[in-house]
Amino acid sequence: MIIMFGLRSGARSGVRLLAFSLFVMFSGLTFLVHPGGAVAGESYTLFESGQVRPLAMSSDGKTLFALNTPDNRLEAFIITPNGLQPKGSVLVGIEPVAVAVRNNDEVWVVNHVSDSVSIVDVRNLNKMRVTRTLLVGDEPGDVVFAGPGRDRAFITTAHRGQNVPYDPQLTTPGVGRADVWAFDAANVGTSLGGTPLRIITLFTDTPRALTVSPDGSKVYAAGFKTGNRTTTIFEMTVSANGGLPPPSLNYEGATAAHRADCETQRFILDGQPRSRLGQSDKVQFAGQRRICHRCHDHSTAAVARQCRFL
Predict the structure, then answer these.
(1) Which of 93, 103, 106, 204 has CB atoms 3.0–4.6 Å from 226's, for a disulfide?
(2) How many helices (H) and strands (E) does the chain have?
(3) Domain region containing 239
(4) 1-15, 160-174, 203-217, 261-275: least confidently modelled range
(5) Where are the alpha helices (DSSP H) in the chain?
(6) How many Å is the maximal CA-CA distance in the chain?
(7) Half-sphere exposure for 222 (CA within 13 Å, toward CB)
(8) 280 and 213, same structural domain?
(9) Parallel, antiparallel, or unpaired for β 30-34 and 2-6?
């Protein structure tokens, strides 16, 4: 659900407070706020980038940072017993989707469309400013801090060649389509777009969310389009329709000798578990679909169940 506000600047603070209060109350909905002083008929381009981590709280619990995605802004609110009070706002990159607090002085914002990360000085909430812009891979999605002292920044991006210092091998089989950029948060480098410590390629596509283990030693990345054009269906359905479809070779063109091993699984006959069936039992219960075999097809390294008993 998307709710868009287009009001005059005089109502700006009130609308922001209302919109983000509703966002907190109804976390299952997405509220996109366009509060600027736009006159009737003015248009702009909205890419509708999906937010990944749009809210972050300061370590002392006194300040809430929120992303105003369509307005390309980071908003700051003071948390009070009576609700949120708008405190400051700063322009960042195009369509920010994730925000993370590094310390009391600094907030990092991931900009999905501009392929960048804005490092924001938040020591004075009334005068927040972008102090550095990092140029990263395509469509960055999230940022977290991990490692000793949480001094390493990790950013998810798609693996499509933007801003990488090496050949991305876009047409090479087996190369992942997701990257995680790692920076030294205290020293991002002197080059124009920053210098990553490492770019880690993952075998998935369009990575989004990140999370960190409690001790900060591990970072977990979630791939948004990670199915690689696959789906999940029941083994019985596959077996009943001729088995697995081609190709039966892997990307190296290799295959194993065709062989199928089958074993009768345990089943229940007259309420008693058994591992084997006599011939009369097979005849008696075959019509009731109570015999189950598990077959391993070595030509495709697949396991299929031909079940008449479940």
Answers:
(1) 204
(2) 3, 21
(3) 235-307
(4) 1-15
(5) 12-25, 235-240, 279-286
(6) 87
(7) 11
(8) no
(9) parallel
